[in-house]
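Posting this for the archive.
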Amino acid sequence: MLSLDLNDKELFGNDAGEDETPSVLESYFIDLDDFAEFYSQTQNLCVASARKGMGKSALLNKFAYTLERCENDCTAIVIRTTGNALLGLGDFNDKDPAYLENYWKQIICKKINIEIGKTIGIALSNDKISMVEAAELEGIKNRNIVGSLLSRINGKIPTLDIELKSSFPENWQSHLNQYQDRHKDSTVWLLVDDIDAKYVDNNEYQNRIGSFFTAIRGLANEVNNLKIRSTVRTDVWNNLRHLEDLDKWEQYIIEINWTKRQLRDMLSKRILSYVQRKHPLSKEAQYRYVENYDKIFNLVFMSKIPWSGRPREPFDPIKILSNNRPRWMGQLCRMAARQAYKTNNAIIGINQIDEILEQFGKYRKNDLIKEHKHQYSDLDKLIDAFRTKSREYNYKNLLEIISKNYVFRTGAKKIPSIDGVMYSSPAQLGSFLYKIGFISNSHGDGVGFTHYYEDPDLFNTQININNELIWAIYPSYRKYLNIK
């Protein structure tokens, strides 16, 4: 059997989808049916929503790679950027949503101008050229975005001061005209990742990020040949949906959730892709990720791993501990592989997984706090209320733990609002812990769980209030919190 280097960071791919080599990402990428809408050449606007670590950036990276290979339109202009990069192009201190909507449109046009300038070797980053005035936005409605912006630039440059114009190449007019002739009818694909990277749940950020979505919806429908793709965290989107301007957005949103089969295929493809890159002449490189997934897994993992009282396929504990998130799955496998390498084991077994779970749980708790602290500022202390306690509770016992170990110690009057709602009872906190995935409904076999995205109303059902459901601290967090 082929022996793989368990210490090679490339074995399970890059955790950051935006940093992965595009050709490598494509080799192990798994498509969901809903991605067809994201890829559609006729859809002007689409936004992917998901929890952190679910593959939003990877989707954007993979789609950009497809576009840049000219599979459909070799004259298309593909612009990849981030929310922070766009914010850095302007001053967003104004709080008025109407102003911010127009300002976002100006900033997006500025970004397109700058990217065009880079392509043709003319520095168009100066605000006198790149910044489209609010009044000028009316002039590009129902017109092609590239032709409109280039015509405006062509008219602006001659009016600039001599010192600024002297920084342009002498033949700038020729460069601009040639580009305009070739691209005046081109499609611009604007791909914006992490628009909510530094989101804080207050009015300023709600207006700032909410107005971005209003702006891109307006631009996508007002100008020709502009197609916009973006990503947003599910928790942030849920906090913005009350904004009046976003009430027509459901048609443009796709939600990323992975099934067990899709995650298994993804991990199988990651390992197989590595084998094909590093050992292309081996017989294992000829495996097929669906038909031979067991053989592929056996290159890295024991064929059976004891979990919850009986031997199971290695993917079962990996899927459970990663909580259905591809990034967590990659991190778990990489940590276990490194532990196996350190202890001179050729493959990963339950011991290596168990040995890294405390550190893995620490990372996951930190992830959870970073992801949801804007919804509940005291989340760290709430989670710590379960440290060294039981792993499973019925409804009554869960509320008792929250009341005794958190509410009583904190003081009800000091408990912050939960998702913008004033605290009123421990049941609110229990429901929130279910929403963010710290607890899930256990099926009793150590493998099956019902998650919030599968049944959002489960915690508030009468069957739960009657103590007929079991809530488990999710396995990812247990060892770090010393929960037995």
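The chain has three domains: 31-255, 260-368, 373-475. The domain at 31-255 is CATH 3.40.50 (Rossmann fold).
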